[in-house]
Specification:
about 375 residues; mainly alpha; ABC transporter involved in vitamin B12 uptake, BtuC
Length: about 375
């Protein structure tokens, strides 16, 4: 089947299937192979990609350590090592209580949360771009962010369940409600990629309107200001319990999506191609929609809505390492984590002592990066 028969747009960096001759592009032939690995035509990538992955992982570790030091109050590496050693039970001299709390209770959870959220959003973006064959797909395509925003606003403004769930819980419940509505609508209309995109846009617009309505009804400038800041995303409220939840959900979500990597390669060429490779299209789409939605819901509930990470990072990684998802997904996780760790550090110090919501900087950096990727690919 020709790729042109599919009404959906193709992903940048993924070649189209040819027409009548029935010969597949090397990347498409690789999808059909039972054993995953680099495309045979790219022998150099076999050695360079593992090395690149190790370097990216090392860069992430260094970035986390450096980012912990950055803020209105500088922290030395010695103090960082002493704080970590003391809490791990090592024989180190304890720090003054205030400094120890600054490092262990505020800085480290914040930086780890940035890394986890960046990784989760980037991986979800990569999966959804393949699943929907839409180059502009990101984790907020399904309306999850809008539903989370409505839930958070309902708790703050209306006091709905404030004592029981708080803002984070309200955001998570709102995200699940929006996803439930999405799946209910898709149950009747089907799970093809066009309907997923269009239904997600409708659900997002509905919950965006509800959020605006509740905010206008509040009439309190302080509440509106606080909610607006939350909607733009911030790591300031990150604590160890939230980091633990986000870490577990991100790890499980990445593992599930990695298991479906070959199926995602097939979806990149269209549902018919995926089905010809033996993929149960409907079941796979349902599983991946549920997983990406839950991962996104946890991330948004923890730190608010942070845009452009799930959109731009997969395109950058695809440009660097290719479109195959066994490589694309783990690299997206690392690059997404790196991107958000440094963006959050910039948000802390750019206008110190006032902190700027990290979503502002992800947009400011994401737009030119996205345009650069498009230009490199000759699409701009």
């Amino acid at each position: 089947m020709s790729a042109s028969a599919d009404p959906d747009g193709a992903l940048p960096g993924v070649a189209q299937l040819p027409d009548a001759q029935g010969l597949l592009h090397p990347a498409a032939r690789h999808v059909a192979q039972s054993e995953p690995g680099p495309v045979p035509a790219e022998p150099a990538a076999r050695t360079s990609r593992p090395v690149l992955f190790v370097l990216a992982a090392a860069a992430l570790l260094v970035s986390v350590a450096v980012s912990v030091r950055i803020g209105t109050t500088d922290v030395t590496y010695t103090a960082l090592l002493r704080a970590v050693g003391a809490h791990l039970g090592l024989d180190t001299e304890p720090l003054p209580r205030l400094v120890d709390s600054l490092i262990w209770d505020l800085r480290i959870p914040r930086v780890l949360m940035a890394a986890l959220v960046g990784a989760s959003l980037a991986v979800c973006g990569a999966a959804l771009q393949a699943l929907t064959r839409n180059a502009l797909a990101d984790p907020y395509l399904l309306g999850i962010s809008s539903g989370a925003s409505t839930g958070a606003v309902a708790v703050v403004v209306l006091g709905v369940g404030a004592g029981a769930v708080g803002v984070t819980g309200g955001a998570f419940v709102g995200a699940l409600v929006s996803f439930g509505l999405l799946m209910l609508l898709l149950r009747r209309s089907g799970l093809d990629s066009v309907r997923i995109v269009l239904t997600g846009v409708v659900v997002a617009q509905l919950f965006t309107a509800l959020t605006s309505l509740v905010l206008m009804a509040s009439g309190d400038p302080e509440i509106i200001r606080a909610i607006t800041q939350w909607l733009l995303g911030s790591m300031a409220s990150a604590r160890w319990d939230a980091v633990a939840v986000c870490a577990v959900v991100t790890a499980v979500g990445l593992a599930v999506m990695w298991v479906y990597a070959t199926a995602l390669d097939g979806f990149s060429f269209g549902a018919d191609t995926a089905a010809s490779l033996g993929v149960d299209v409907r079941t796979t789409r349902t599983v991946l929609l549920v997983v990406t939605s839950l991962v996104t819901a946890v991330a948004v509930a923890a730190v608010g809505a942070i845009g452009f990470v799930g959109l731009i990072v997969p395109h950058v990684v695809r440009f660097l390492v290719g479109p195959l998802h066994r490589t694309l997904l783990p690299f997206s996780a690392l690059v997404g984590a790196l991107f958000l760790v440094w963006t959050d550090a910039l948000a802390r110090v750019a206008f110190a002592p006032q902190e700027v919501p990290v979503g502002v900087f992800t947009a400011l950096l994401g737009v030119p990066l996205f345009l650069l990727v498009l230009r490199k690919r000759g699409e701009l």
